[in-house]
Design goal:
By secondary structure, the chain is an alpha/beta fold. It is built from 24 helices and 40 strands. Helix 6 crosses helix 16 and helix 19 runs parallel beside helix 22. It binds flavin-adenine dinucleotide. Flavin-adenine dinucleotide binds next to helix 1, helix 2, strand 4 and helix 8.
Length: 809
């Protein structure tokens, strides 16, 4: 306890927190807080959401009012009062109040928490009144007022404030173009993770201009032109500048305190500056990084609040109550439905720091996939080699992203390793997680890599290896391969690879790739134990690699041709909610057939399989999936109609499918039509060949009277009369089974068999009845449904030889 005077500069996260903690530790002291703006302790993190109307009451942004500071904490608060200079000799600060009058205040300890201000590049037009920033409440008031009349906005900068503003402007119906100088948004992420953020932005209608540094802004009457190197965006009503921040540290610089090259104030472990009577915290300082030991500036509220507390401890007691380890940069942001989080180093920063590192990536459902509502989550870790020490992690997904980042953050703070990640125990029940968390999985994957049981490479390393002669082996199933693959890959499904060992070269590096990395690992184990020495596995698999390739496509379309005439193209919507596979894909195809090249279709579906089906379908059919999001189980895909592919990257993909229907069981016939419709929707010519009992599926209702011999009559009486009369292959329960099944199908909105037949017909599926079986069973063509052809085994073989999918049901 003392009679000291503590002066605090800055009244928001760091300043307000330090002042309050100082009071709790020292009841006798005089505490004076200066804030140059009109408000203290306001929720700057909530500002974008106030602009978007998510936070409706402006008052809710004011977390603690000046009166509370005075009444409860006995802190003298001076708003609209700027600290102009520091006299270190006299231990005074000069302040200028609201009325312009200047005064001098002495201090025993001075805390600087002036924060960081938006960086404003010196470009022509940057000071236009419609070019706005978002730092405080007066800023957001201007933004909200401008938004009222705005139709088109440009957000410059793809960091978290820029993305939050892009989302909230879009939610208010304003068309947003996001301009970013770097090739990606969210630079704490690596590119292969940022592409998922780009997809989310595009799917919500935000136009992305990446690698496009702002050149100038030109006013034309009421509107602005935003000039980029390759394009001018015209008719803009407002620009949000969120290029990054620069420390608001001129006081410290003028007082000759030590600052780094960028102006961040340098402090010791007690947050003391180079003057022991002056402390500094928050966004304006650089503190030794726990990873590299060199000063690191991170503009985040969590660290600012923690520093505030520890700095007050150090002022009153001589040292922080807990040693501050430095900032790990744990952050999470909402980008429409997607949550995007990161902590620690990414692969780029590990590379720049010359650390030998490895990466592991995987994709899993955020909770048990059998429990409703699971959505895809993608996670990546960066670890030191060979020690396995964790360096950082990134997660994108729809639910539970923050939880994973928090776990990684705690492990990083305790020098955790990938082995710790493999063994950490998580709370599990199906609605929340899986028995093995995605982070456990990453721990297993990285541990295998370190133990030499696998050799992980990312998509870039794989590309480089292939360029240098490595063979890319796709170990997914033939069906997956036909739905899309990396050009140049050969396909040996992992379960069959033992039978193809002679076809794989032992003298060349082999790069294995599956969907996410698991089957690649399994195939790798087989190959290594069979004498293949140089085997690698693409971490994150096709899902990661394909996402990067899709990004290239999207960028070509969005900005490769800046003058592309988009006018006249239409955007239509399709509601396929409630339909089960292949319903959404079939409806999608039918709708797309009605569009012109360049038109867009926004499809909404709830069948979880649609998420991956639509990607493959687009790839096979030459259309572009511009974005896909999922919100509480509702998948929204935006597809741009392209020229139909003459030859796609995977030559097999447009081959035919033939399905032999041998059975007259209801469930088997149903499965046959589901597959036929799915294949037809993906552009494959499909032939269904009905033979023996399968002919019952094609019988007309009502039955046509025809003349039959004795055996024909016998078969006619024994066989189901038509497709409505079929029984289940098991659990038939004297005919109750099919009824129950049909009612379930109705409830689950799965089309009935007859509708599936009609859909298949509409999709040009060929139905061939086997002549030989008809002869044996005494069935005539007149008894069969319209549109059915009669053919022999030759017809079937002819069709089968054109195809790459051949099924017997
Ligand atoms: P600030 O909170 O910026 O406070 C500094 C104050 O000092 C300012 O009010 C300034 O007016 C005042 N000041 C400066 N110089 C003087 C002077 N000479 N005299 C008097 N007063 C002065 N972080 C997260 O972790 N998560 C988020 O979701 C998040 N969202 C954000 C959204 C927005 C729009 C913004 C702007 C920031 C967001 N942040 C977020 C960052 C977070 O708000 C900052 O990291 C945190 O507020 C830093 O605290 P600080 O005390 O260092 O600086």
């Amino acid at each position: 306890m003392s009679n000291k005077t503590y002066v605090v500069v800055g009244g928001v996260a760091g300043g307000a927190g330090a002042a309050a903690r100082l009071r709790r530790l020292d009841e006798e002291a005089r505490i004076v807080l200066y804030e140059k703006g009109p408000y203290v302790s306001f929720a700057n993190c909530g500002l974008p959401y106030y602009a978007g109307g998510v936070i409706q009451d402006r008052e809710r942004l004011l977390v603690t009012k000046p009166e509370t500071f005075t009444d409860v904490f006995d802190i003298e608060v001076h708003t609209d009062t700027e600290v102009m200079s520091i006299d270190r000799e006299k231990k005074t600060v000069k302040v200028r109040g609201k009325d312009g009058k200047e005064s001098v205040q002495t201090y025993d300890a001075l805390v600087l928490s002036p924060g960081a201000k938006p960086f404003v590049p010196p470009l022509p037009g940057i000071d236009d009144p419609a070019v706005l920033q978002v730092r405080n409440i007066p800023d957001i008031d201007k933004v909200v007022a401008t938004m009222k009349k705005a139709k088109k906005a440009v957000v410059v900068g793809g960091g978290f404030i820029g993305l939050e503003m892009a989302e909230n402007l879009t939610e208010k119906g304003i068309a947003v173009t996001l301009v970013e100088a770097a090739p990606q948004c969210m630079t704490p992420l690596d590119y292969d993770m940022a592409v998922f953020v780009h997809q989310s932005l595009r799917s919500h209608g935000v136009e992305l201009r990446l690698s496009s540094p702002l050149q100038k802004i030109v006013r034309h009457g009421e509107k602005l032109d935003v000039v980029l190197p390759d394009k001018t965006i015209t008719d803009i009503d407002m620009v949000i500048l969120s290029i990054g921040v620069t420390p608001d540290s001129h006081l410290a610089k003028d007082a000759k305190l030590d600052v780094d090259k960028k102006g961040y104030i340098l402090v010791n472990e007690n947050f003391q500056t180079s003057d022991p009577s002056i402390w500094a915290i928050g966004d304006a300082i650089a503190y030794p990084s726990p990873f590299t030991g060199t000063p690191w500036a991170v503009a985040l509220a969590g660290p600012a609040n923690k520093m505030a507390r520890l700095c007050a401890d150090a002022i009153v007691t001589g040292k922080p109550s807990i040693a501050y380890p430095g900032t790990y940069g744990a952050s999470v942001a909402k980008v429409f439905d997607l949550a995007v989080g990161s902590v620690g180093m990414n692969a780029r920063s590990a590379g720049k720091a010359d650390i030998a590192y490895g990466v592991a990536v995987t994709h899993t459902p955020d909770h048990a996939s059998y429990y409703p509502g699971s959505t895809q989550m993608t996670a990546k870790i960066v670890y030191e080699k060979p020690s396995g020490k964790l360096l950082g992690g990134q997660v994108v997904g729809y639910h539970g992203v923050d939880k994973r980042i928090d776990v990684l953050s705690v492990l990083l703070a305790h020098n955790g390793t990938v082995q710790d990640l493999a063994s950490f125990e998580q709370a599990y029940a199906p609605p929340y997680n899986s028995a093995k968390d995605i982070l456990n999985m990453l721990g297993f994957i990285a541990s295998n890599d370190l133990a030499g049981l696998d050799h992980l490479v990312d998509y870039q390393q794989a590309e480089e290896m292939i360029k240098n002669g490595a063979v890319l082996v796709d170990v997914r199933t033939k069906m997956e391969f036909s739905l899309g693959s990396i050009p140049g890959a050969v396909n040996y499904p992992h379960a069959e690879i033992r039978g193809h060992l002679d076809e794989l070269p032992k003298d060349k590096p082999i790069v294995l790739m599956c969907a996410i990395g698991l089957r690649g690992h399994i195939a790798g184990r087989i190959l290594r134990q069979r004498g293949f020495k140089d085997v690698s596995n693409v971490t994150g698999g096709y899902k990661s690699w394909h996402a990067v390739l899709q990004e290239k496509d999207a960028r070509t379309l969005h900005q490769g041709d800046a003058n592309m005439e988009e006018k006249g193209n239409e955007t239509l919507t399709l509601d396929a909610c409630g339909l089960q596979c292949p319903g959404p894909i079939v409806s999608l195809k039918q709708k797309m057939d009605t569009l012109e090249v360049g038109d867009r279709l926004v499809v909404k579906a709830t069948d979880p399989g649609f998420r991956s089906d639509v990607r493959s379908w687009c790839q096979m059919t030459g259309n572009t999936l511009e974005g896909i999001t999922e919100d509480n189980g509702m998948i929204t895909a935006t597809i741009k109609k392209g020229e139909r592919k003459e030859a796609c990257s995977v030559p097999a993909c447009m081959k035919a499918a033939t399905i032999i229907v041998f059975s007259n069981d209801f469930d088997k016939a149903l499965a046959a039509f589901v597959l036929a419709n799915g294949a037809a929707a993906s552009g494959k010519p499909v032939t269904m060949f009905f033979t023996f009992w399968g002919l019952s599926v094609l019988r007309k209702r009502p039955a046509k009277k025809v003349k039959k011999d004795f055996m024909g009559k016998m078969f006619g009486a024994m066989l189901p009369k038509n497709m409505d009369d079929l029984s289940l292959s098991s659990m038939n329960f004297c005919g109750m089974g099919p009824k129950m099944m049909k009612s379930r199908m109705k409830k689950k909105q799965v089309s009935q068999l007859r509708t599936m037949f009609e859909t298949a017909k509409a999709n040009n599926v060929r139905f061939i009845a086997c002549q030989m079986s008809m002869d044996i069973m005494g069935i005539t063509k007149d008894e069969l449904l319209d549109g059915v052809e009669v053919g022999g085994v030759g017809t079937y073989m002819g069709e089968a030889s054109k195809g790459d999918v051949n099924l017997f049901i």
